[in-house]
Amino acid sequence: MIKISVVFIFPFLHADAVQVTHAKYSRLLAYQNKHGVFVCKVFDAYHSFPRFNDGFFKFALRTKLKLRNLFILRNSQEHSMIGPLEYFGTLTRADKYAYQISIGDLYPIIYRYPRHEAKETKRPPVDPKVITQVDAKWLSGLDKNLASTLAKYPKPEKAPSSLVQASGIFEMNLKEINLQAFDATAVDLTPFGASLVQNDQPFIMLNQKEDPLEAVTYLFGEKYAKAQIEKPVGLFLETHGFSQTITPLLKGCAGYVVLARRHGNTTMYDLIAVQIPFGFTLVVFKGAIHGDTTLKGKYLMCMTANHKTMATADVVFLKNRNTHDNVSINLVGEDDQSVSDPLTFSQESVYFNNSHQGIKQGFYDKVNGDAKMRRGLLPFSRFILVDKASVKIITECLLHRAKKAIKG
Any residues with CB less than 8 A from the CB of 252 and at least 6 apart, and which? Predict the structure, then answer.
């Protein structure tokens, strides 16, 4: 009876599918920096008391600390990248299993299979016509010998909570890079350290043992990439000692991920722009050169939250070596790169300290509405009370509710 029910609801699931994340009974966790405050919905390990699950202990404080490592809030509103907006759970020993992702009306669900269930299709290599070659120097901020060279470039502002070490520069003579749009689902991306897989077929996330992967969501604003170029920081590429996955959650998601590879010991790099269609996941393997600043919309990402592993990230900002200006990236051969289903922060996340009263009220209404859906004996049990931002949001919401009641 159970098998028939599962097949009816999710026709692509096999009988041996094991659900490893869920999307109900969440609690709320607030994060903040100078750009504002946002609420993360925590769907896993929201319990106050520790419980042993899938190989290790889970509890609210541990979850809060992990999510703090993944916290990003850059710029504001449609110019920002923000997240995690939701936390769905942990994938332990992902190298032992294959995975599928079911994207429902609201939130994704991840299923686990024996590794041998993975479906791998042989594909041709990337057409050289869509590869852009760039002559550039990777000046790593992790290399202390380059400190004097990097000092002449504007330094990006480093958030106090950021685990990324000193950033570097991807130095070139260009003012802009033009990348060619192409169908990445039809080619082999492994020479670039990645693979593009279908969500409805078991696929491999990790080829070797790595840290557990945390399943979270991020929202890339419509004008995020443009804002990065206009600010001193610019667009960036990175490489790090862990793998990650990127899955669009709405059909309206747009943009692309830049993948790059170096020609041996030379200064020549091959760059491509990979658009991730709805229904697919881009797996970026450990050590691959990539950049996701050019994404638009809401994405599920699975990656480590281990602070030591995250500190392996080597981030370089694209700069012109003569003017020190930011280098922009253009996608050629794509008519419309806007988000077809606009994602506004009134829908996904808004800031309670924003001066616009409409947005401010929308924030309170959203948090109050979410709180009514929670299960718990006490009102405050619906929140994870582990930092001052969460306490502040609860207080603000209660005051807002009281003001509305008085007016009514």
Answer: 297, 339, 340, 341, 342, 343
